[in-house]
C-alpha cells in the first residue's frame, strides 16, 4: 500500500509538470514585439537654494508631498537681520526724498530772510562809512590807508549781502530737480536691495516643486546643507513609464502613439495599458543585461512606453514585460 501511494504521488508530480510544460508551449503566444524593462517615474530633487543648518524636515521615504508644500527650513539669522537693515535704509532714503520735495520749512525761510536783512544792514553801514571817509579824505582829515580800509569793509559787506540774497532765493525755489531725481533713484535702489534680501530669506524655506512620492531622504534635521544639495528625491507617480530596447530590424513596426500592453510581476494576471511616447533617434548597442551575446551585439533603439498609473500602485524598480502591438 505504501508503494502504491508513492507511485501515485510520483505520477501526480509528473502530470503537473507535464501540464505546466504543455500550457507553456500550447498557450496562445503574445503577438507583437516583446521587451523587458523596469518601471520608472519622473524624479525631482528637492534642493535648498541657500546654505545653512536644516530644521523642520518631517517627510520620510514613502510619504506623499504636493507641489508648493513646505519641506524644511534653513536657519539663517544673518539674512533676517539683513532684511531689517535694508528696510531701515529704504525708510531713510524715502524720508530724505520727502524732505527734498517739501522744500524748506517756514522757520527756515524766516531764518534766511533774517540773515539777508542783517547782511543788508551791515552793507548799508559800511557804505555810509565809506562815503563819510571819502569826505574826510577830501578834507585831509583821514589818510589814504584809512579810506582803503573803509572801501574793503564795504566790499566785503556787499558780497555777504549778495550771498545771503542767493540763499534766500534758493530757499524760495526749493530743492533742485536734479537733487530730487537723484534721491528718487536712491529710493528705487533701496527698494531693489530690500527685495533681493527678502528673496534670500524666502529661499530659506524649502518647498516641493511637484506632486509625488518621496523616494529617498538624503539629509536629517541639524545637518548643514549647501545650495543644490538634494534633501529629498521625489517621484511623480502619475508620470510612470518603462524604457525598453527594440532591435533596429523591428523599428519600422512601431511608432509614437502606438498602444502597448504592460505586465508587471507584482500583479500577475493583470495587464496595464501603455502607449509609446518616445522613440530614440540614435542607435546604441543592446544593454549588457540582455540575455545572449548575440543580442548584446545588436543595434537597438530606446523606446519609452508610458503607463497609466492612475491607481498609484506601480512603483519604481518593478520588473515589467512590454508587448508592442
Can you characterise this structure?
Helices cover 44% and strands 27% of the residues. The protein has 325 residues and is α+β, with helices and mostly antiparallel strands. It folds into two domains: 30-67 and 215-324, Efflux pump adaptor protein, beta barrel domain (Elongation Factor Tu (Ef-tu), domain 3); 83-199. The strands form two sheets. It has a six-stranded antiparallel barrel. A four-stranded antiparallel β-sheet has the order 5-4-2-7, with no helix packed on it. A hairpin with a 6-residue loop joins strand 9 and strand 10 (271-279). Mean pLDDT is 83; it is low at 19-29. This is HlyD family secretion protein.
Number of strands: 13
Gross morphology is rod-shaped
Task: Write down the CATH topology of the largest domain.
Answer: Elongation Factor Tu (Ef-tu), domain 3
The termini sit apart by: 55 Å
What number of domains?
A: 2
Portion of residues in beta strands equals 25-35%
**Tell me about the biggest sheet?**
6 strands, antiparallel, barrel
Mean pLDDT: 83
The first-level CATH class name of the largest domain:
Mainly Beta
CATH superfamily of the largest domain: Efflux pump adaptor protein, beta barrel domain
Order of helices and strands: HEEEEHHHHEEEEEEEHEE
**CATH architectural label of the largest domain:** Beta Barrel
What is the helix tally?
6
Compact description:
Pfam families: Beta-barrel_RND_2, HH_YBHG. With 325 residues, the protein is of the alpha+beta class.
Amino acid at each position: 500500500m505504501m508503494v502504491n501511494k508513492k507511485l501515485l504521488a510520483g505520477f501526480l508530480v509528473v502530470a503537473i509538470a507535464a501540464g505546466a510544460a504543455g500550457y507553456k508551449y500550447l498557450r496562445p503566444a503574445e503577438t507583437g514585439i516583446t521587451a523587458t524593462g523596469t518601471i520608472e517615474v519622473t524624479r525631482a530633487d528637492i534642493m535648498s537654494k541657500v546654505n545653512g543648518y536644516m530644521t523642520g524636515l518631517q517627510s520620510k521615504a514613502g510619504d506623499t508631498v504636493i507641489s508648493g508644500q513646505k519641506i524644511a527650513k534653513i536657519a539663517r539669522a544673518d539674512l533676517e537681520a539683513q532684511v531689517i537693515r535694508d528696510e531701515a535704509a529704504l525708510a531713510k532714503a524715502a524720508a530724505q526724498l520727502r524732505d527734498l520735495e517739501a522744500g524748506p520749512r517756514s522757520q527756515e525761510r524766516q531764518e534766511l530772510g533774517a540773515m539777508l536783512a542783517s547782511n543788508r544792514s551791515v552793507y548799508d553801514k559800511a557804505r555810509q562809512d565809506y562815503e563819510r571817509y571819502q569826505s574826510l579824505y577830501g578834507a585831509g582829515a583821514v589818510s589814504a590807508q584809512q579810506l582803503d580800509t573803509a572801501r574793503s569793509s564795504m566790499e566785503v559787506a556787499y558780497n555777504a549781502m549778495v550771498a545771503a540774497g542767493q540763499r534766500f532765493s534758493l530757499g524760495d525755489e526749493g530743492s533742485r530737480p536734479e537733487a530730487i531725481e537723484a534721491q528718487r533713484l536712491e529710493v528705487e535702489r533701496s527698494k531693489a536691495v530690500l527685495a533681493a534680501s527678502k528673496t534670500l530669506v524666502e529661499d530659506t524655506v524649502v518647498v516641493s516643486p511637484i506632486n509625488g512620492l518621496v523616494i529617498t531622504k538624503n539629509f536629517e534635521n541639524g545637518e548643514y546643507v549647501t545650495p543644490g544639495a538634494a534633501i529629498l528625491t521625489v517621484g511623480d507617480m502619475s508620470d510612470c513609464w518603462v524604457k525598453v530596447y527594440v532591435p533596429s530590424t523591428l523599428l519600422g513596426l512601431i511608432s509614437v502613439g502606438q498602444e502597448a500592453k504592460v505586465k508587471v510581476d507584482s500583479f500577475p494576471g493583470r495587464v496595464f495599458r501603455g502607449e509609446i511616447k518616445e522613440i530614440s533617434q540614435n542607435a546604441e548597442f543592446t544593454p549588457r543585461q540582455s540575455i545572449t551575446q548575440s543580442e548584446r551585439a545588436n543595434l537597438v533603439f530606446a523606446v519609452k512606453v508610458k503607463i497609466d498609473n492612475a491607481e498609484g500602485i506601480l512603483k519604481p524598480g518593478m520588473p515589467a514585460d512590454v508587448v508592442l502591438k
